[in-house]
């Protein structure tokens, strides 16, 4: 899993049938890696800090769609993070 910030929406006029009804968002990993496109199942919004599951089998299990062509799924919106010194 990775922490990422929602930076935008992704709109597709043509897409794989398994993505029908799926909301897609652009997310930027907090560690500075490249932006990703993730399936949103928690109704995250622009600027939200989110938890992204980054593994294909988990994406299939979480969405319940065996043929979904996705690796990244937003599984949580972070309210706060407490770091120990």
Automatic annotation (TrEMBL):
Its main location: other. This is Ethanolamine utilization protein EutN. GO terms for cellular component: bacterial microcompartment. InterPro entries: EutN_CcmL, EutN_CcmL_sf. Keywords: Bacterial microcompartment. It is found in: Bacterial microcompartment. The keyword RNA-binding does not apply. Gene3D superfamilies: EutN/Ccml. Pfam families: EutN_CcmL. The keyword DNA damage does not apply. PANTHER family: ETHANOLAMINE UTILIZATION PROTEIN EUTN.
